[in-house]
Each structure stands twice: as structure tokens, then as C-alpha cells.
Amino acid sequence: MIDKIKIEKAVREILIGIGENPDREGLIETPRRVSEMYEEIFAGLHKNPLDDVKKFHEDHDNGMIIVKDIPVYSMCEHHLLPFMGVAHVVYIPSGNEVLGLSKLARIVDTTAKKPQLQERLGNEIADVIIEAVDTKGVAVVIEAEHLCMTMRGIRKPGSKTITSALRGVIKTDSQIRMEALSLINGR
User: Fold this and answer.
1) How large is the average pLDDT for residues 128-136?
2) Can you give the residue ranges of the GTP cyclohydrolase I domain (predicted)?
3) Residue 79 annotated as part of some ligand binding site
């Protein structure tokens, strides 16, 4: 679990390290606030995304199921700065079970709540969906802006990183892949 006392001590040391006074009025509560924030934004480290999965029985073939523009927030593991954007999730059920639509958003949320790479995040989301329900294929496309690129280093605000994780027929069948990607893009 998260050790909030260690985080508070570390944040205090960081403030001293950058030349700030952690005992000044505006910063006195900062170590506690940061530890509480870290407990929330890194909750995915201690939670299994499958715990929130709910499946429903369907008697007919639904074709592709797509949830677009799921807000996603995570922390770049290289700089501990946020990246944020949207995830688009597509899956094709193989059997008679489908996932609750809100559960797809929960899978994205839980999987993102840890130090992460965007490339890995998409793969983890796809793998959780495959583990949760029998599928013919899965696609996860993430579009995100990384603050490590916009506020430091190269300083290119507005630049987006787009990654995809493809599984099953969405990866192997070019016609199905094109259909999934065109539906994500609204065409």
C-alpha cells in the first residue's frame, strides 16, 4: 500500500532541495496534500482492474463494440509528470458475453492509475479486456498530451502522442482493422 508518511517526508526534502522553505505558510500542508494526491492517482498499483468487470449475456452477435473518447490521466514513469487525453476501446465479442460499457471506462481508469508509459497502458487495457471476456479482437487507441514534452525539455505544447494496441482479428484482418479505426475516427 501507499506509505503516506514516506511521501510526506520526501516531498518536504524536495521542497528543501529546490530552495524552498517547507515551513512557510503556503507550503506547510503541501507534503500531506501531495501524499493524499499520490494515494488517489496511483491507486491502480494496488487494485486489480478485473475487480470492476461486469459481464452481461447476449443472445445475438453484436459486431464491434466501441467506447470512444474515454478521458485518461496517468503519470509518465520517466518524469512523474502527467499525460492526459482520451482512450478509444473497440472489441468484438466471441461468445454470448459482453462487458458493461462503464466497465470499459473503469478498466482504462484503473490501469492508468500508476506510473506508466502510454505504450504499455494501451497494451495493458487490451490484455485486461481479453482476460475479462472472450473476444475475437480488441483495439485500444490512446491520444494523449505529455506534460514532460510540453512544460520541459522540447516544450511543444499541444503535441499529441497516439498509440495503438491491437489483438486478434483486429490485428490480423486488415479490413476489420480499417473498419475499427474508421469508426474511432468518426468516418
Assistant:
1) 95
2) 7-184
3) yes
Whole-model pTM: value is 0.94
Which CATH number is 4-45's, of 3.30.450.20, 2.60.40.730, 3.10.20.600, 1.10.286.10? 1.10.286.10
CATH of 55-185, one of 3.30.70.560, 2.60.40.10, 3.60.110.10, 3.30.1130.10: 3.30.1130.10
Has 146 been annotated as catalytic? yes
Model confidence pLDDT, tens digit, residues 78-120: 999 999 999 999 999 998 899 999 999 999 999 999 999 999 9
Residue type, 172: T
Is 88 among the annotated ligand-binding positions? no
In sequence order, what DSSP letters do the residues of 14-65 get, joined into one string? HHHHTT--TTSGGGTTHHHHHHHHHHHHTGGGG--GGGG--EEE-SS----E
